Structure formats: C-alpha cells, structure tokens
Amino acid sequence: MRHPTDGTLRRLVDEPAGVADTDREHVADCPVCLSELVTAQREAAAAAAALDVEVAVDVEAGWRRLSRSLAADDAPGVGAPTRRRWRSLLRSPAIAAVGVVALLTGAGAAAAADWLQIFRPERVAPITVTRDDLLALPELTAYGRVDREGNTDVRDVADAAAAERATGIAVPRVGELPRGVTGEPTYQVRDRVTTFFTFSAAEAAAAAAEAGGTLPPPPPGLDGSRFRLTNGPRVAAVWSSTGGVPALVVARTAAPTVDSSGTPFETARDYVLTLPGLPADLAEQLRSVSADGTTLPLRVLSERMTSSSADVNGTPATVLTSRDATMAAVVWLDGGLVTAVAGSLSADEVLAVARGLR
Fold this sequence. Notes:
The chain is an alpha+beta fold. It has one domain. 34% of the residues lie in helices and 26% in strands. The protein has helices spanning 6-14, 21-29, 31-52, 59-73, 80-90, 100-103, 131-136, 160-167, 201-210, 265-272, 280-289, 347-355; strands at 116-119, 123-129, 144-149, 155-157, 186-190, 193-199, 226-231, 234-239, 248-254, 257-260, 295-301, 305-312, 315-322, 328-334, 337-343. The strands form three sheets. The chain has an eight-stranded antiparallel β-sheet with strand order 4-5-8-9-15-14-13-12, sandwiched between helices. Strands 1-10-7-6-3 form a five-stranded antiparallel β-sheet. It has a two-stranded parallel ribbon with strand order 2-11. β13 (315-322) and β14 (328-334) form a beta hairpin. It starts with 5 loop residues before the first helix and ends with a helix.
C-alpha cells in the first residue's frame, strides 16, 4: 500500500475521525509515516502559536506553547503543586496574553448600550517578564467567573481567498521570500472568540486568604462588574520546514479589545495592579505601558528572548529575537490589526519580509 499523502497525515492531526481506517492502520504500523506524523503535529502546534502572535488572549494556544516549555525546563525539585499552578495560570484568560491588565483592557465596538468601551489598542509595547514572575502571578480564575463564546480551534483552509472569506481579514502577501524559504504556504484561520469575566469580591477575598494574603478593598462598583474581551478573527500563511518549526509565518489578527459593564479602565487597572502576588517590577511596567489605555503589552520572557524597537513602513514595531539566535519575529499594530512575521530567520530577515508585505 502507498504511504498516505501529507494532507491525510495533517488530517490525522486536525480531524482524525475523517481519515479512513485503512490509512490510520497503515500509519500506526509504518515507521516512516509515524515520523512524518510527528512533523505534522509540530507544524500544527507552531502554526497555532503563530496565530496567537503572543499579544492576544488565546488560552489554549498559550497553554500548548508554554506547557511544552515547562516540560523541557522544569528543574529538579519542582513538584506537582507548581505544575498545577502553571496549568491553572496558563488557562486563565487574564494571564494568557500579558497578565492581569489584558483582561481589563480593550473591547470591540460595544454592541449594546450597557457596555462601555474601555480599551482599544493602537500600538504594542514590550514588557519583560521572568519565569519566576509568571509563577508568582495570582490565579485570577479564582477571582470571579469566566465564560467563553466561540470556537478556539485553528483550521486549515484551501487558499488565501478562503482565509479572507472565513475571517474578513486579507492575508498579507509576501513580496520576496527570504533565502531558504521556498514553496507555497498553507493557510490557517481561527474564529473570533469572546471571553466574559465577572469580578467577585467574595471569591477574590477567599482566594487571597487561602494564599495567606489580604485582598485590597475593591473600589465602589467593581464587585459584580463584567468585562467582555474580544479576540480575533485571525489568519496566517505558514511556510513549513524539514525541522518541524515553520520556516516563515505571516499572521494577522484583529486587535484584542475589551468592554466593561460600567467600571472605567483606570479604576479596574489601578486595582488589579495592587493584587497580592503581582511582582512589583511587572506591575510598574504594566502601569507605565497602559497609562493611556491604548497600548497593548507584548510579553517578552527574558530567559528566552530579547526585544528591540523598529518601524515597519513608518509604523512602530517590536522585534523579538531568541537568545540562541535561531528565531525572530516582528509585531506591530496598525488600523486595528496586529500583524506578526516570524520564523527560523534573523531579525533583519523578518523585518525585510514585514516591510515588503503587500
């Protein structure tokens, strides 16, 4: 029997129930196909992470990406309680993008009169965090109720036109591929997702007490307030490589935004930044970049990445470079859309691609 096609292997990752029994049985018994299946799984996970572009609250993508880092980096003596804390932390919609402020900053156009638009980002700015910072962050899912609407799955589509039809966002066209990047990309999309958070002073006080801390008195009106965070939709063009990590990803997403049921942005932000467990340096960075309510923080894990400033055709951008110099990315926000170019490339190469997009 011939080996299944690359498309069939990818479908085993995304939609295994849609693959014929004969193909599944062949892959299970074939070392060559099993190896190719592992590559397909890695590319799918990397593409999903690229769609998240590290600035939007995407709980599942953030969990997949960072849990892999945990598995690789856990030091001896780090036991199950710490891993459970990470797991709870990374599933919190408040933490997945940049910590507590992301939950309380930003909203798509308010759809009803009882929603107050409190944040619409116009630019991105880096904030530096350490792994210890992330471990120290409070578990905000214990501070209220979280509900979500929308499909978080990343799915393949046939071409750029299909991606635009599915999301309403045009896939940026690459003018010239960097050296070593060849062939045609695959196209992936993710739908808009809306997350609702209802703050509960009673639950928050109980969580703080259990952790041995004291909750600051919430400002009038915050108890019971609801916040609506809107993410996406998102599109990406992905050029694969033989190493399992995409050679190039060009992704674009609607900037995450938040509505409030009445609490002003400054009130929510200032209170959240006093919560027990939030590292002082991180709180100060978040307070600085969110001063005017129009800057979306871009998390930079200091053990793994460095950041620098650049511009993409006149728009301010942030360049991220891995400390081992194997990967780079550039991220910017313009016209309500966040665009990211990333891959197994240098900073100069991703900037050249970004500036040449059409």
